[in-house]
Amino acid sequence: MTATATATATATRTGPTAESADPIPSQAFEVRGFDAAVGAEIVGLDISKPINDADFARIHRAHLDHHVVVFRDQDVSPEAHIEFSRRFGPLEIHVLHQFHLNNHPQILIVSNIKENGEPIGLGDAGVYWHSDISYKPRPSLGSLLHAQELPAEGGDTLFANQHLAWDALSTQLQQKVLHLKAEHSYLAKYEDLRAKNPWRPKLSQTQIDEVAPAVQPVVRTHPETGRRALFVSEHFTTRIVGLPQDESDALLAELFAHSVKPEFIYRHAWKPHDLVFWDNRSLMHLAAGTPDKLRRKLYRTTVIGDTPR
Ligand code: OGA
Ligand code: MN
Fold first, then answer.
1. Do strands 181-184 and 237-240 pair parallel, antiparallel, or not at all (unpaired)?
2. Nearest residue CA, atom 7 of ligand 1?
3. Mean residue pLDDT across the chain
4. pTM for this structure?
5. Ligand 2: distance of its center to the CA of 133 in Å?
6. Would you kindly state where each structural domain of the chain is located, as residue ranges?
7. Using a 6 Å CB cutoff, which residues line ligand 1?
8. If one looks up domain 3-304 in CATH, what number appears?
């Protein structure tokens, strides 16, 4: 555009929102896809600095294309972590309020650390494959997990691409499960976990009421990309609606085994200051585990998503 045309166009507009130039400068960052079934790293971006619409669109695109994006070297405060997360949607307040960060209920502390004999966070988060909050009518769009303190060994997180899992199902199984629905429950494994980890809080009646089971499609269509994904998990899915329990158990066992085949997986080995943002509509994830004697602490925000369809 010539200088004259620009001046004319600007002059005919009214009010600051009509100005096309974004006042926030772009950040020079790179998106580098991993050589894996999912995942990319973003290098050179500081999520605690203002992010303009063009940069945000690139980040959003990378999240949709790669399903898990690793923002390297993020030295961010809880406030900045929350503010960045909110750009993707409203935030979940996790039912385990015992493990909210002080004054920041939007952050769940994921940690195996005990202080004065008391757990400071959820120490066994993700020990079964799952998609966050699938037990609520509106499960999570995605979660943003920020490393605070990492163990010298262990502590990896695995991600399994459920679009690939759907694509790789036999045509026969695809037809069988396409229109099925399944029940998901936060309580499915809660007592088992409490038996293994007695520090897990006993849920109050209010907490139990907050996590009444939800029915979800076994196969969901990603609301932004239109791709189908399997949406059942060993952690939360209790039964296929309308099938006798033995048939339901057998079908779920088959789907669980299929959904986490090695070719669908990216294993994240955490680096200091990583902030990992995954798509709960596309992926399941699993905590590989941390030796008890080593400390691990991360902060999680969870963006609320759509009703799965
Ligand atoms: C989570 C989770 C896994 C991990 O925070 O939602 O499942 O490796 N975490 O900490
Ligand atoms: Mn999780």
1. antiparallel
2. 126
3. 94
4. 0.93
5. 8
6. 3-304
7. 110, 125-126, 132, 143, 145, 157, 285, 287, 298, 300
8. 3.60.130.10
